[in-house]
Amino acid sequence: MNNSKFLTLTTVFFFWGFLAASNGIFVPFCKSHFQLSQFQSQLIEFSFYVAYFVGSLLLFAYQQIAKIDLLNHIGYKAGIIYGLIVSAVGALLMIAALHSGIYWLILGALFVICLGFSLQQTCGQPFAIALGDPKSGSQRLNFAGGINSVGTTIGPLVIGYLLFGSLGNLNVTVDIAAVDKLYILLSVLFLGVAFFLYTADLPRVEHDEPVELGTGALKYPQLTLGMLAIFVYVGVEVTIQSNLGALLALPEFGSYDKSQIAPFISLYWGGLMIGRLTYATALFKVDHAMRSAVSLLLPFCIFGLILAINWIAGYDINKLLVYFVPIIIVVAAIFISDNKPSRSLFIFSILGIIAMIIGMNTTGKVAVFAFVSGGLACSVMWPCIFTLAITGLGKYTSQGSAFLIMMILGGGIIPPFQGWLADIFGIHQSYFITIFLFGYLALYAIIAKKVLRAQDANFEKEEPKLNDSF
To answer: What span, in angstroms and rounded, lies between the C-alpha atoms of 32 and 65?
Structure first.
């Protein structure tokens, strides 16, 4: 692997995470400014995830009409650059939509921004895998995902400081002028990163085989089942934290006010950064003892960073210290998984099931940290699923990647579904669906490994036979 080229690509992953922080400001602004109901305000998130689905669907339709694999034709690097330009146009449209005072135009502008994201991610994920040995593809995606999580963690602080001159108080009134500045900044950043990638020395990745019409990639079961796995994974990752505020408001879970839940949300997303960066330490060519030492120390260093960020923001971090217990468990799981995508996905899915069962059957601090540790359980899943799903696709890799990105739609479907269940059974009881979601991911880990082995496409085939059942 060419480390400099891969690290250049990770700047885009950081950018995705950094920009995701803007929704934390934008949703409450729209709700108060346009006097929206909770359901109407959540259409912002719905527009975000539907754009991924539509963007991938448009790519597939273009291939069928033009009889050409667009991403293979232009290359992954150009695809990311075009995606950034589309997002920049959407950010400028957002400024005009804000001043129109029409909420549906705002949703439309956000949709355009996220169409650009769809193209960027469709190219970025397989590009990261292609920049090296397929055996370490999931590790590269985990490292890139960890960089994404760094952006998500510091993004709210940076954006809050730029707009409000404050690191910790994001619960102030946001006016149109402030949001204008945000989207002007974002459009400049989109174009700046596009120019940076344009001048960067990145290889062209393509397949020489001709593309067949139809849904060729869907003939591979690792992909079709992987599409459902991505839908489920994004859904469970988003729904755990999306409904967490309502859960924490209950007396048996602490009666936390909205202004008090931020540390738990940051801990949840910080858990993804902990798992991803720790898992990715196998990328670095150092001796086993050094790698083991880094794997043991790094997660607690990141945990310290998360605590420091919350301390700077003015929150009481003493109540967060107990989180070191699930971190220890996850570090052990990473060592046991031995950086094998199928084994890792299976182990972390089981950890997710255990955490959700504990949360379902307890209350108070134990239940809160059980649900929050869902972030640690989810941390390495995306790259493991993505790697397993596109392995062996060959000329259909770009098409398969587009189908997988399409399934990010799960983040816009499953959280409202859990909300509907919460209205019927109660918010605590509604978390039972997360057990079934993690259960499917464990099942996919087993099936994908068997399918790839049957196709002689399994890069884990050097594993001992006993690993058939993990």
So the answer is: 44
The beta strands (E) that lie in 71-230 are given as: none
Q: Which two tokens stand for residue 365?
A: 């601090």
Give dist(CA 377, CA 275) in Å, integer.
Answer: 8
Neighbours of 157 (CB within 10 A): 18
Record the tokens describing residue 174, joined without a space. 């946001």
Q: Which amino acid is it at 213?
A: L
Helix or strand holding residue 351 (H, E):
helix 341-360
Could you tell me the domains of the chain? Answer: 3-469 (1.20.1250.20)
What the block records as the tokens of 430 is 């509604």
Nearest to 334 by CA among 271, 272, 276, 273: 276
pTM, two decimals, is 0.78
Token digits of residue 100: 């129109």
Token pair belonging to 93: 């449209």
Of 322, 321, 381, 324, nearest to 351 by C-alpha is 381
What are the start-end ranges of the H helices in 220-261?
Answer: 221-242, 244-248
Compute CA 141 distance to the chain's CA centroid, rounded to the nearest angstrom: 11
* 381 touches 349 (CB < 8 A): yes
Instruction: Render 32-64 in DSSP notation, one character per residue.
Output: HHTT--HHHHTHHHHHHHHHHHHHHHHHHHHHH
Quote the distance between the C-alpha of residue 263 and its chain's center.
19
pLDDT along the chain (470 residues), means of 10: 71 76 62 71 77 84 76 82 94 90 90 90 79 70 77 67 55 65 86 88 64 71 95 91 84 80 82 86 71 86 88 83 93 89 95 96 93 93 90 80 85 84 88 96 95 77 38
